[in-house]
Amino acid sequence: MTMKLLKAAERGDIAALELHLKNGDDIAYVQKSTGLNALITALNCGNEAAAQWLVEQGSPLDQVSLATGMTASAWAAFNGRTEMLQVLQQAGADLDKTGDGKGRTPYLIAVDHGAWAAVRWFWSAGVDLQRRDAQGRNAHDLLVCSGRDVPGDVLERVAGHAAAPPTGR
């Protein structure tokens, strides 16, 4: 029955999600073959209303997808969904948790994928802007290596964080 919960999240069908939970489905269910839960599925499919509803119902916020190594916050950052990042932060998600198999936090994922609105959102979110990934790269390193056309304000601010003394986190 829990696969139906994931299918409802995939469709963004809140009424079906509610029915499945009422009938005893586990909100923390993780599909073995993909490692996805309902919250990550809803975010991955762009169903923000369903994702927000799942957060309100107590979905695990920092669960890591076994297939991608990404958390819900990492998916929101990857897709530049600042509203969902705000919802996840307010619900208590760990926005500094390594968000993928490369040791990147959601902030570093946003930087690496050119999700500029999310990058800017993170600047005031209280996350560690100097974190490094598993290869020792910080946000500035990721920008320099990307070859992307980076907005001037992003490049300037990220370079400033790279040059600043460590925050001691």
UniProtKB/TrEMBL annotation:
Intervals holding ANK repeats: 68-100
Keyword Repeat: yes
Annotated keywords: ANK repeat, Repeat
Alphabetical list of InterPro entries matching this protein: Ankyrin_rpt, Ankyrin_rpt-contain_sf
Top-level division of the source organism's lineage: Bacteria
Protein name as it appears in the record: Ankyrin repeat domain-containing protein
Organism: Comamonas resistens
